[in-house]
Write a structure and sequence with these properties.
Length: 477
């Protein structure tokens, strides 16, 4: 009888890939976790309890078949594990790196509830797909038959690319329009290399291109091409622009030089990693070297900013967040990594104003948590008289993102939006009120996770295929 490869959680402790020492990793932009070795990946995968109702799977937005590919990994059947992983996830190596597993799959692992420590799902997922790339198992898309219909996708972020992948596999002609010079959206220019090295994104872009996806880069819809032109050119259109408009800081002095947007700051840093010339970095405007840096915000973008500033050689890096540690929206794993690297968090702190132009300090208001708001979270309220000045030569606004006014930018008044400015679309299909027009990802949800954008892109691609098939049936009649 074959030896049982699973259920080892009782005897095998949870283990993560080795993390590089903080005083070494905070000087470069390479990923901080080493790869699992084959034996270690098998060992950790074997800890899965193969439970009858896998909460890891149900709490994954993509409903990845996690128990089965963990079992295949434990058995050494890595190519089958990759095939299973890829069946539900367009970019498993990216999700393995940047998903907040502590809030999703791993956070709902059954064996953790029994005190044995969760299975390291994300690290195994990353290992499976990185191995697949190394072994040449990841192939360019090769549809069994080509279709005449075409789909235009606006936005080369995770939602748009996931939809492009699904549509091309069915032989649909796909053109992706994007405002940047490289595809990937925030995966390329928003997320730092120490979380997601850029060659990981670029090789997926290359795979899609080799598979027949056409990319039209440096293309601003509404300026370089009209939305109407795209609509007339294609049988269906998918809006996957993301949300890029930064929420602003208020208060006296908020317009001072030295107060910058998180996305501008991160984009400049990521462009450097490609070897681009970045004048705003060279001038010092978007460079933290030698400066007292204050980042305002508590989400994952704020974590990206503080950890980038450390690597650029900042004199000091502090993060102001108006709630406490337990109530911050960012990943606790990221907070721990940031603290190890030298970031100081000032909890229950909010900016009240700014001193100097260029900025020299932030006026900080101490807060306390009061009554719960509409979402159930305790609302922060100021403590009267509890204020101080925090020295700052560079202030980075990381307060989240809002949608741009697409109906105005694209001259499409009939494109319905919600009161938050997001495109109004069916959550199951991405279908909007405009015939043949769909929308997915952050432009529908508001700022959210890459994994949700991938889910939306895949679901909407399936709906678009139904739409194309229905039109084909009508034409045949």
């Amino acid at each position: 009888m074959a030896k049982q490869p699973m259920l080892k959680f009782v005897n095998v402790e949870r283990d993560m890939p080795e993390k590089r020492a903080a005083d070494a990793r905070n000087k470069d932009f390479h990923e901080i976790y080493a790869e699992f070795a084959d034996a270690k990946a098998k060992e950790q995968a074997s800890r899965c309890s193969q439970c009858g109702v896998p909460y890891c799977q149900s709490h994954c937005p993509l409903h990845n078949n996690i128990p089965d590919w963990l079992r295949l990994t434990a058995q050494g059947r890595l190519q089958e594990a990759y095939d299973l992983s890829q069946a539900t996830n367009t970019f498993p190596e990216i999700c393995g790196r940047i998903c907040p597993q502590d809030r999703l799959c791993e956070g709902n692992c059954v064996i953790e509830q029994s005190g044995h420590g969760t299975v390291t799902i994300g690290a195994v997922e990353k290992y499976i797909t990185d191995t697949a790339w190394d072994k040449g198992w990841v192939q360019a898309i090769a549809p069994k038959a080509e279709r005449v219909e075409s789909v235009g996708i606006i936005g080369a972020g995770p939602g748009g690319l996931a939809a492009a992948d699904v549509l091309r596999r069915e032989g649909v002609q796909v053109t992706v329009y994007d405002r940047y010079d490289r595809g990937g959206g925030l995966m390329t220019y928003g997320i730092p290399g120490f979380k997601l090295e850029k060659d990981v994104v670029m090789r997926r872009m290359e795979q899609l291109e080799k598979g027949g996806v056409e990319f039209v880069m440096n293309c601003n819809v509404g300026e370089d091409i009209t939305f109407e032109d795209i609509r007339n050119k294609h049988n269906a259109v998918l809006i996957a622009t993301g949300v890029y408009k930064s929420r602003d800081l208020q208060g006296p002095g908020s317009g001072a030089q030295g107060i910058v947007r998180a996305l501008d700051y991160l984009t400049a840093s990521n462009r450097l990693s490609f070897g681009d010339v970045v004048p705003e970095y060279d001038s010092g405007e978007l460079n933290a070297e030698g400066k007292n840096v204050v980042v305002v915000g508590g989400g994952d973008t704020a974590m990206d900013c503080v950890r980038t500033a450390i690597r650029q050689g900042a004199k000091s890096v502090k993060c102001l967040y108006r709630r406490d540690r337990d109530n911050m929206p960012g990943s606790q794993r990221e907070v721990q990594n940031a603290e190890e690297e030298g970031v100081i968090f000032e909890w229950l702190s909010a900016p009240k104003g700014f001193v100097g132009d260029p900025v020299s300090a932030v006026k900080v208001q101490q807060m306390r948590l009061g009554q719960p708001d509409a979402t159930g979270r305790q609302s922060p309220e100021p403590i009267e008289g509890a204020e101080h000045d925090e020295p700052a030569d560079l202030v980075i606004k990381a307060l989240g993102f809002e949608p741009e006014d697409l109906p105005t930018l694209w001259n499409q008044k009939e494109l319905e939006v919600t009161r938050w400015g997001t495109v109004k679309a069916d959550f199951g299909t991405g279908k909007t009120a405009m015939e043949g027009v769909y929308a997915v990802g952050d432009i529908v949800r508001g700022a959210s996770l890459v994994v949700w954008a991938i889910r939306d892109g895949r679901d909407s691609a399936a709906a678009i295929l139904d739409h194309l098939n229905a039109a084909q049936t009508v034409a045949a009649e």
